[in-house]
Amino acid sequence: MAAPIDAAASATSAAEDRISVASNWTLVWWRFRKHKLALLSAGILALLYLVVLCPDFFSTQDPERTDARQAFIPIQSVHFFDEGRWSPWVPGVVGKRNPVTLRMEWGADPSRKVRIGFFVDGPAYKVLGVIPAKVRLIGPLDPSQRIFLLGSDRLGRDQWSRIMHGTQTSMTIGLVAVTLSVVLGIVLGGISGYFGGWIDQVIQRLIEILQSVPTIPIWLALSAALPRDWTPTQVFFAITVILSLIGWTTLGREVRGRFLALREEDFVLAAELAGCSRARIILRHMVPTFLSHIIATSSLAIPVMIINETSLSFLGLGIRPPAISWGVLLQEAQNIQTLALAPWLLLPGLLVIVAVLAFNLVGDGLRDASDPYSK
Amino acid sequence: MARFILQRLLLLPLLMVIFSIMVFVIVEAPPGDFLTSYIATLSSSGSSIGAEQVEALRAQYGLDQPLYVQYVKWMGNLLQGDLGLSLEYQRPNSELIGEQLVLTIVLALFSFVLTWIIAVPAGIYSAIRQRSVIDYVLTIINYIGVATPNFMLALVLMWGAFAYFGIGITGLFSPDYQGAPWSWDKFVDLMAHVWLPSLVLGVAGTARLTRVMRANLLDELNKPYVVTARAKGLSEWTLVLRYPVRLAFNPLISTIGWYLPQLFSGSLIVATVMNLPNIGPLLLRALVNQDMYLAGSILLIYCMLTIVGTLLSDILLAWIDPRIRMDG
């Protein structure tokens, strides 16, 4: 009877050994992966950032291609089998002009099947702007055909392809804006907490003033002040800076608090006595102790940035066409009469919700995991 | 208490000066002025305006003077309660803003009250019946509520009402009362319309507040005094409502400080989408047309509303929680 007990005892001690030698990050990961919903959300985000890397591969055609005769085509549903055999197709569409309203009315034409395939050659594009390629994840076998997996807008542009390109802009803006805020927050919050005194006073007052600014109206006014003749890239970076200018304050406060507490710790004194420079003490010794916390906080800040960008662009003062973002796409859905005819124009909004939800869940999971020693 | 409020009030003018400079710089920042965009509008509609006329107009509006002179003049007028003249509408700004400001405040306050009426009971229920079906349902609704942009929710509601019921749910009044003077009937009409935009505006806040309330109450429910009270034989609901809920309220009150200002500025987007007579759409139009004094006045009003919102929450918190008063 002694043997199994011994085995069990050694098993627990092996597990304990594993825990006691595991690095901080391993512990964080062990804790995070217990959170199933957060893990699933992390998968969704990974997929979205894959689209960010190369939206052209995922889109079926050029997002700017217009055709007035193909406006407001409804969603073409994908069928995978034809007469029991694997052969993906979408039903063709036929347009009939309504004699009363003079509006085009589209109907499915099941007799005409548009064959589609995966990894087919489509219009040429460049990966990351340099590597030429033409293979696309999904597309019509006959290159002269156009398919509309998520319908088309008032100019006959393919919404599926536009959403892919919008994903690139919107997801990047969130990430870049938060990175900027984190840098600002760590630098200013760090200076404030490390040096204290009048520098601390100045930075604290600055944070207080920025926090009592009415965000949305000021954002709007700042975006409206951007010159009209700027290129989409310039506007993109300007909007990012505008979003992060106000966003860094919360993080700055948190970092300051941590610095104030850490300043008194023995290991900081030891580093100082060992002759480390101030920059080294801050970056090498103090920042790593609360890095996981900062990552969790910033992953909760990204969705806020995404919602703000989408709202600004929706009001016409953020990203401007011809650049495409989720907010720009939703501008097409502004008119209720149009929306009643073409409800699929609301779909980019669904993607906004999914992305924000995923970020929030990952952020919550990270926040719980960021302190692996707590219970 | 009086000293605490006084300290806060003394900071107000200083903040307003900083904000007024900031606002002035921002509305002045775009290249060109109102007249450049005015000329552009004129030429796009086919008519034109002489160079001397432009100069005369520029002198009349004071747009030819150095910036600091314009700022001092603007501030001087503001202090006398004169918000200046809208360049576009050719009407006093105070007249344009007047009623819309009242409606902006009504919308935000209504939304605020609605949020609390929904969030507090939902949070209490979720905490007491932790891990029940309703708790899970509320949690899911909360996550989605936080993730949905205001304008998106407004769009979906408007589309649903139009596509399935054939009704428009925009505006704050029925057509009959649109331009009518204020009366009891108009007020009733406003109350019939205001709750939907308020709900849209307050969804994200409601979700957040429910979670705060739930978390606070859960912390309190595990404390020994709750066990003591239960051991003494108090009925569960009396017990919960009388002690832990009251303590869980304090952190909730400190959320007013950011929540009320957020409602004021958030109403801008909802008002634009749902076409409400609010200062938000007015600001948007003024910004696009570079109607700088109108835009500047509205921006300053937003700043003022934000500061007052924060001030109110500070006072409320100090009044309810004596510990804060001592520190202050």
Describe this structure in words.
The complex is a heterodimer of chains A (375) and B (328). Chain A has 375 residues and is an alpha+beta fold. Chain A is built from 14 helices and 4 strands. Chain A has 2 domains: 86 residues, no CATH class; 208 residues, Orthogonal Bundle (MetI-like fold), CATH 1.10.3720. In chain A, a hairpin with a 3-residue loop joins β3 and β4. The mean pLDDT of chain A is 82. Chain B has 328 residues and is an all-alpha fold. Chain B folds into 2 domains: 78 residues, no CATH class; 220 residues, Orthogonal Bundle (MetI-like fold). In chain B, 78% of the residues lie in helices and 0% in strands. Chain B contains 15 helices and no strands. The interface between A and B is large, with 39 and 49 residues.
Fold topology:
The complex is a heterodimer of chains A (375) and B (328).
Chain A: H1 2-21, H2 24-33, H3 36-53, H4 55-58, E1 79-82, E2 85-97, E3 104-127, E4 131-140, H5 159-195, H6 197-211, H7 215-224, H8 232-262, H9 266-273, H10 278-286, H11 291-314, H12 326-331, H13 336-341, H14 347-369
Antiparallel strand pairs in A: 1-2, 2-3, 3-4
Chain B: H1 2-28, H2 34-44, H3 51-61, H4 67-79, H5 93-128, H6 133-147, H7 150-165, H8 184-221, H9 224-231, H10 236-242, H11 244-253, H12 256-274, H13 279-288, H14 292-320, H15 322-327
Helix pairs in contact in B: 1-14, 5-6, 5-8, 5-12, 6-8, 7-8, 7-12, 8-11, 8-12, 12-13, 12-14, 13-14
Top CATH class of the largest domain in chain A: Mainly Alpha
CATH class of the largest domain in chain B reads Mainly Alpha
Tertiary shape of chain A = globular
- Our count of helices of chain A gives 14
Mean pLDDT across all residues of chain A, rounded?
82
* Oligomeric assembly: heterodimer
The helix/strand series of chain B, from N terminus to C terminus, equals HHHHHHHHHHHHHHH
* Helical fraction of chain B: over 70%
Q: What is the strand content of chain B?
A: under 5%
CATH topology of the largest domain in chain B: MetI-like fold
CATH architecture of the largest domain in chain B: Orthogonal Bundle
- Overall number of strands of chain A: 4
Walk across the major sheet of chain A and give the strand order. 1-2-3-4
